[in-house]
Amino acid sequence: MRSFHPPTKDEYPAYFDRYLQLNPQQDYPLLIEEQIQTIKELFKSKTSNWAEKPYQAGKWSPKEVLGHVIDTERIMTFRALCFARGERNALPGFDQDPYVLNARFGSVPSALLLEDFENQRKALLTLIQTLPEDSLDFHGKANGTKITPRALFWIIPGHFIHHLTILKERYQ
């Protein structure tokens, strides 16, 4: 699979710097594949009830964090597809909290969430392979701001790293 360079600052709102700066400078497909293994290993290394418990009241459980990551990646991938195909209509934002609440990730087995994450990542990589290279530079509007498919694709692994760090540091 071809790789592609990270976005330039004019391709996304400054808010996303927090995720993009977390990405190591490496081959994108390799990064995506490594993250699949990383999350599987983390969940496997913990006790079975670890995934059920938030680190404090009002926070998500590890399963809810993983579900949130999956949902966010689906939304970012959808946005990237729309803009790569030339969509001119603005796309809405989303409020992550009702998504997590309504998904009821706590009742989904961890193994199924991990499989879903892997399948989402594999679909992401095959989508990128099918896109004309110049379509990564098209701009679209989501949540009231301009962004490119390239930026959306690179936000995905950075967002994952953000949440992985929280899982490792706060969920003992």
From TrEMBL:
This is DinB superfamily protein. InterPro entries: DinB-like (IPR024775), DinB/YfiT-like (IPR034660). It comes from Algoriphagus hitonicola. Residues 33-165 form the DinB-like domain.
